[in-house]
Specification:
The chain has four helices and eight strands; from the N terminus they run αβαβββαββββα. It is an alpha/beta fold. The protein folds into two domains: about 50 residues, no CATH class; about 110 residues, Cupredoxins -  blue copper proteins (Immunoglobulin-like).
Length: about 170
């Protein structure tokens, strides 16, 4: 009787294997190794390049590394971001590293609220999309591998059941 119970559990596990789908949130370190700083004079591309070179997805995490007491991170509306009005913030993060979970899709606007930092280029605008984390491939797999997936998803559980049946009975 115990062998039958074990077989039922193995069959259930084998059938659920193809349904198992895990995604991990990607962490994006804002500014890379430079961190969250005032960009060099004339280098307005530091944060625009960072935003353009990354894909931000729901539940990904932005990590802002900065010198606590010299910088901070605030979230702003688009209107206040565009004008660098850091007096009306939605959220403020004053201790580094600031870890911000991208908990909705759409636009996010960040800046440093220290005097003149935003107007000197220490601001970031990103777009967050739904879907799996940024660790997923950016392009779809070739058609051949997509066609093979259902075969693999069925073959592995069937093999698993066959081996379990031979071992148990």
């Amino acid at each position: 009787m115990a062998n039958v119970e074990i077989l039922v559990l193995l069959v259930a596990a084998a059938l659920l294997m193809p349904l198992r789908h895990t995604t991990e949130a990607a962490e994006h370190v804002v500014g890379g190794s430079a961190g969250w700083i005032i960009p060099s004079q004339g280098d307005t591309s530091l944060y625009t390049s960072f935003a353009a070179n990354n894909t931000f997805r729901l539940n990904d995490i932005l990590v802002f590394n900065f010198a606590t007491g010299f910088h901070n991170v605030v979230t702003l509306s688009k209107k206040h971001y565009d004008s660098c009005n850091v007096s009306e913030v939605m959220q403020s993060f004053d201790t580094a590293p600031a870890r911000i979970i991208l908990n909705r899709t759409g636009e996010f606007y960040f800046a440093c609220a220290f005097s003149s930092h935003c107007s000197l280029g220490q601001k970031l605008s990103i777009h967050v999309t739904a879907g799996s984390s940024s660790l997923a491939p950016l392009s779809p797999p070739p058609p051949a591998s997509r066609a093979a997936m259902p075969l693999v998803a069925v073959t592995i559980p069937v093999l698993f059941i066959a081996v379990a049946t031979n071992v148990l009975f």
